[in-house]
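Example record

One chain of 72 residues, shown exactly as stored in the release files.
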Amino acid sequence: MQIPANAPATYAAPRRTMVDILKVQQTLASYAALRGAHDMLRARLLSLGGDERLQTEDLIARIPAAVLPYYC
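Predicted structure tokens for this chain:
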């Protein structure tokens, strides 16, 4: 599952939910999706402003928290 690079800020809640879902799945594909989304969002962060930037920063912070204990 990929998070679209051009998804507007209105997707913030579904994105957070997707992070939670991928964390619970505990599969290699889910782990890869989380890592890929994190990299994509970080690369895109500087081009964002306002609420979209704040929501993206929140999402970027949530992903490492979901990945760190991934296979525990």
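Notes: The mean pLDDT is 84.
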